[in-house]
Amino acid sequence: MPRPHLYLLAALLAALGISHFSDHIDPYHLDVLIGIGINIILAVSLNLVNGYTGQFSLGHAGFMSVGAYFAAAVSLFVAPHFLSESGGSVLQQGAFFVAALVAGGLCAAFAGLLVGVPSLRLKGDYLALVTLGFGEIIRVIFQNVEKLGGALGLNGIPAHTTIFWVIAFVALTVFVVTSLVNSTYGRGFLATHDDEIASEAVGLNTTRYKIVAFVIGAFFAGIAGGLYGHFKLTITPTGFDFTKSIEIVVMVILGGMGNTLGVILAAILLTLLPELLRPIAEYRMIIYSFMLIVLMLVRPQGLFNFKFRSARKKSAAPLA
């Protein structure tokens, strides 16, 4: 069995073990752990787009909102027609929850395709503006759809998100992104990042690689949104605004672009930091922002950009 599969299996077993003892974990600490897991999914999926493929997306919160709303809609409006009045068995609830997450992820992936096809011929600042505009359009649409709660949002979402599901989907996200980047096909993402003109000269369709990265990243952002909605039990359009997208981008930049382990560590740090600063709540955001500025000045290449033997180094090795 290849090593990535062993890591995935070990992570799933760890998720089962932690879930078994979750009743003995302080509820506050459990909430923080779930928040860390959701942020890891968001950061790792965006790293595929911004880090490995070399694009600059500012619309990840928009994809997250699509997944959150559609997954919540499945749980609220579809699942009750198939479950008994008592809510069905635990197995049935779990199956419908996974189906709701996948439905939200697929809707977010479709939204990523709609945005990606016309816009990914753009580069740099232009692409950032397009994705930023998409995120705001999605937020305004949800804000005006009364069936989905309008400006008040959706309430009464079933509390299906547990530490097991979060760890399981974190492991799946890391596994898929790592395996994809280290595969033969994944060399196309790295080549697109390094030099689009040279990549096209040797026959690579760089637009296709960018769209694939965009769609996969949007899919996992939708999964994270579904987990978030079934964790918070209520979602509003303001929870997926421009600030949320910036927060995810900061995790990727601070962790080191194209460095999956660094991005995971940055997501953990930036989720814990506001919690650690709660005793000085009135100064929390000032200190948080100041620390981000210092970290960016001291480590512009990324705080956790360690010199591991990465897939990019392997791809740069001379052919025999």
Q: How is the secondary structure organized here?
A:
Blueprint: H1 3-20, H2 27-52, H3 60-78, H4 90-119, H5 124-144, E1 154-155, H6 163-181, H7 187-194, H8 196-201, H9 206-232, E2 234-235, H10 242-255, H11 260-276, H12 284-298, H13 311-315
Antiparallel strand pairs: 1-2
Task: Give a verbal description of the structure.
This protein has 320 residues and is mainly alpha-helical. It has one domain (3-19, 26-241). The chain is 70% helix and 1% strand. The protein has helices at 3-20, 27-52, 60-78, 90-119, 124-144, 163-181, 187-194, 196-201, 206-232, 242-255, 260-276, 284-298, 311-315; strands spanning 154-155, 234-235. A two-stranded antiparallel ribbon has the order 1-2. The chain starts with a helix and ends in a 5-residue tail after the last helix. 43% of the residues are buried. Mean pLDDT is 84; it is low at 308-320.
**Spans of 5+ residues with little confidence (pLDDT < 50)?**
308-320
Helical segment count: 13
Percent in helix: over 70%
Number of domain modules:
1
Identify the overall geometry: globular
Structural class: mainly alpha
What's the helix-strand series? Answer: HHHHHEHHHHEHHHH
The radius of gyration over CA amounts to 20 Å
Mean pLDDT: 84
- Sheet having the most strands: 2 strands, antiparallel
**In what range is the share of β-strand residues?**
under 5%
Number of strands: 2
Strand order of the largest sheet: 1-2
Distance between the termini: 27 Å
